[in-house]
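Q: What structure does this chain adopt?
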Amino acid sequence: MPDAKIDYSDAPESQMAPSEIHVGRFYRPIKQLVSIRVDADVLAWYRARGRGYQTFMNQALRRAMRTDAPGR
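A:
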């Protein structure tokens, strides 16, 4: 049977597009311990957020990674 004749009316719609997948829901990237140097005022600003400031820093880096144009 050709694809054009297949009846998809009873097939459930996709719930989530790949671009909408949330890191941390089912996918947990491997963490790597690193040592970096950041300006003291930048670190103080992140630490002022309280517990989880390293996670927040990681999220900020991930956002920058996703929005940066390739080839830079």
